[in-house]
Predict the structure.
Amino acid sequence: MNLTLKSLPAALKFLAITLLCLAVSAAQANAQSLLRDTEIEETLREFTNPILRAGGLTPASVDIYLVNDPSLNAFVTRGQNIFLHSGLILEADTPNQLKGVIAHETGHITGGHIVRSDYGNRSAYGSMLIAAGIGLAAILAGEGEAGALILGGSQQFGVLEALSYSRVNEASADQYAFEYMDRTGQSSEGLIQFFEKFRAQEVLSQARRYPYFRGHPLSSDRIDALRERVRDSEHTGTTDTPEELHKHAMMQAKLRGFLNGPAEVYSRFPLSDQSQPARYARAVANFKQADLRNALKEIDSLIEEEPQNPYFHELKAQILYESGKGIDAIAPAKRALELKPDSPLLQIALAQATLETRDTGDYAKVVDLLKSALQNEPNNSYAWYLLADVHERQGNRPLAQYATAERFYAVGNIQSARDFAQRAQEELPRSSPQWRRASDIIVVTESHNARKKNRNRGPKPFVSFTSH
């Protein structure tokens, strides 16, 4: 099932930029979505990039996706993609535990452990999603950046039996993980702690295990072998830095604020707790409860303590925008971008808030913001959606149609991309880069349609009809 951003209620669009799909309808409660948040993505990158380099990988070539799913799971797919469930991040007691799991998944990439199923030449992951009605290309070509990508039922996506690794591969990934953590001067004790925390899962039935341990079978021998190497490491006993612990706590608090019910947030973070993570989570919970006064009170207290923190200003902008105060959201959104220039999601957030003024004099600034964001995230279909909107407001129908073609192309809607690219070409100057790009879209989509038609021309099965 696909839910495009265009079909979302208007009140969710800003939320889709900063932390996606956190308020989808009850009918979609069992579906999964990719989450986007600049702060969380930056934290995960800071934890992951040194590990990737230690494994001989280029960080820019490895994509990290955060899946909105409370189950404990993480996995990798072909193309060097790491998927982390929100449940895994919330279950990790320390950054070191989370890094240990990331190092283990990196070991599966460098060890070439991605297995094939009986689905032919497609990857197991792609085949499972295709069976669920969603193509792998649509997922990895930019729908995550678009917002509100529904990946499929949690059983189909969260429990990919086809991605089960052998115990040999699991032990190998453990050893890779140890080496990568050791090379970066970090202890692998967190990975052992993580495994021991859920060691009882090994004796449970397959149906009752966490998804992670269905795909990554655990054994006492593995833990013992890993413990032996950790015991001899010079980095054993190395702990997370205060900065890492704080970022981990803030990441978890933000996720809990958005993903858990307000009552659960207030229980975990009572008013007596005046720590930054507690106020962060309560600010979000109050916002979700439509308690604007207390939401702003909590976030303003954080801004007063750390006026240079862009993410506090970003959350304030979101709270104001989602509460129907779009124009008031411009100032904090602008401040967030000033503190973290060139952040695509923050640029998109400011562009959207600025559109609320409906001042034609602001449209050129909005176009500049969106073009800058698209230079870094060319497949961000929500940015293309906004760009089409502002071009339409400017009365520039050809550019609006071109931007719409790009939006549909980014989410894998080939037919609509081709239709809008053709409309744009009819009015765009042939010498313009947009005309040439529209031509590329038409060529690619026509080639795609031709391949699809040829696949559908396979031999038909013999059917016998018997008269009675």
Summary: Residues 1-31, 116-163, 460-468 have pLDDT under 50 and may be disordered.
